[in-house]
Amino acid sequence: MNRQDLLKLADKYQSPLYVYDTEKIISQYKKITSAFSKVKNVKINYAVKALSNINILKVFNKLNSGLDTVSIQEVKLGLLAGFEPHEIIYTPNGVSLQEIEEVAKLGVQINIDNLSILELFGQKHPKIPVCIRINPHVMAGGNSKISVGHIDSKFGISIHQVPHIKRVVENTGMHINGIHMHTGSDILDIDTFIRATEILFDVARQFKNIDFIDFGSGFKVPYKKDDISTDINELGKKLSTRFNEFCKNYGKEVTLMFEPGKFLVSEAGYFLAKVNVIKQTTSTVFAGIDSGLNHLIRPMFYNSYHYIENLSNPKGRERFYSIVGYICENDTFGSNRRINEISEDDILCFHNAGAYCFSMASNYNSRFRPAEVMIYKGKDYLIRKRETMEDILKNQESVTL
């Protein structure tokens, strides 16, 4: 999106504001499907946790995407957005057997990553097909907080426990119809990822009637100019060849699945915030905005980088600023960033704000969560209203003291 369009949206809907460009979402979806065009059966399941607004889910429904969900609430959102139950896979972690059973009643594909839950579910529901999440013990994420395939991770069943899985399957008579892994986010080393897929192939061979293999996701997108990212075409070429070989040797055309979230929506999102104050200290010039970690926690949570530009003064001389929020914590979005000269009331734009931004927002400091706007076929749509005091108080019960 261009600068003028974003400024008009900030004026129309006020700040802070999330804006999502669906053209970018669609192009990213086509990019990944094109990369694996040589595989007969491919299914892309959008990871709802990245951005869960029901209108964004409807866009993915129009693209014939499936959904990757991690909670019963996400499952229900998907159903409300028009997805059929068989188009949704449910991959929770640490949830109760009761929630898994409730999701199973909805007809959704179940994915289990815990031996004890697998055994309990198999004993009670041996006729319901189940996918198994494997931990390949491969470190492939870009940060310890988003790497989930290593040996100390809470996610998945260890590859060393496959004999236990097989014993549970034999004892319960349950049907394993899929094998799954997710190594982590911001994958750059394709060969490391391929090594993890080989481990998954080895596990899949030990189950005779699988319908799909889910390779997770975690593909890195660029966060700044000339930034490196996952070469999805190279991955597509290498993995497609190996997957087709597997299917031939397995004697069945199984489905190749991915569950991208950030890859599909990150670059489509923009977060707009107004500058409240310029504060000069003995060593730093701070630009304080009308937002904070309550709206965009990623830089504070796992040191993510968001390119920040001054939409209001694109030709001003560049100076160094630390962009900070209004929360009573150290909510620094970027330190000593070289940005066109900033004044009070300027609108700053944070790029890559489509994934894990609004979905991780909160009411910390009793602040309102912002509005969300979606651009679809050149028209802007308000897809979530800005919160008010009524929203803050909605579920609070007032008692007489």
Question: Could you please describe the fold and organization of this structure?
Answer:
This protein is α/β, with parallel strands linked by helices and 401 residues long. The protein has two domains: 22-261, TIM Barrel (Alpha-Beta Barrel), CATH 3.20.20.10; 266-383, Beta Barrel (Lyase, Ornithine Decarboxylase, Chain A, domain 1). 30% of the residues lie in helices and 23% in strands. It has helices at residues 3-13, 22-35, 54-62, 72-80, 97-105, 115-124, 162-172, 190-204, 232-250, 262-265, 298-302, 389-393, and strands spanning 17-21, 42-47, 66-69, 88-90, 109-112, 130-135, 157-158, 176-180, 212-214, 255-258, 269-280, 285-289, 308-310, 318-324, 332-340, 347-350, 371-376, 379-384. The strands form two sheets. Strands 1, 11, 12, 13, 14, 15, 16, 17 and 18 form a nine-stranded mixed β-sheet that branches. Strands 2-3-4-5-6-8-9-10 form an eight-stranded parallel beta barrel, surrounded by six helices. Helix 2 (22-35) crosses helix 9 (232-250) and helix 8 (190-204) runs parallel beside helix 9. The longest helix is centred in the middle third of the chain and has 19 residues, at 232-250. The relative contact order is 0.16. Its cofactor is pyridoxal 5'-phosphate. This is Diaminopimelate decarboxylase.
